[in-house]
Specification:
four-stranded antiparallel sheet, about 40% helix, rod-shaped, 1 helix, 4 strands, alpha+beta
Length: about 130
């Protein structure tokens, strides 16, 4: 007489457990990757928002008000520094040679967190400062 099996053998249980653990680890890795990518995306969006917010304010402040720092609110502030100043030549005069018509001011703006003064973003920009003559 042939007896019918009423359960699973130990080998079958071990193989099923291994397959289950492999599936769980793959799902866990995929979830962790998704969470990491989402955090990175949120950080990039926050930096892009800050850059958009500060770019016009800093350019106007540096060019027209001669201010090299300001507050952004939301726990951030910006600082600018002039890193280069080059003469701009638009005309050549036969008698005087090159006639500078102002300077090109290159400045670097850095955005900091107020709580720990850590720089989180930096960019460079320029403007033309017409000579006063």
């Amino acid at each position: 007489m042939i007896s019918k099996s009423k359960g699973m053998t130990l080998i079958e249980v071990l193989i099923a457990s291994i397959l289950l653990f492999i599936a769980i680890s793959i799902m866990s890795f995929t979830f962790q990757s998704k969470v990491f990518a989402e955090k990175k995306l949120q950080e990039s969006i926050r930096k892009a928002y800050l850059l958009e917010q500060v770019k016009g304010v800093a350019a106007y402040s540096v060019e027209f008000e001669n201010k090299l720092q300001g507050n952004l609110g939301d726990g951030y502030y910006w600082q600018a520094e002039i890193i280069n100043s080059l003469p701009v030549v638009r005309t050549i005069n036969v008698d005087r040679g090159l006639a500078p018509d102002g300077t090109m001011q290159v400045f670097r703006v850095s955005i900091f967190i107020k709580s720990n003064s850590k720089s989180i973003l930096s960019y460079e920009d320029f403007y033309w400062k017409k000579s006063e003559s």
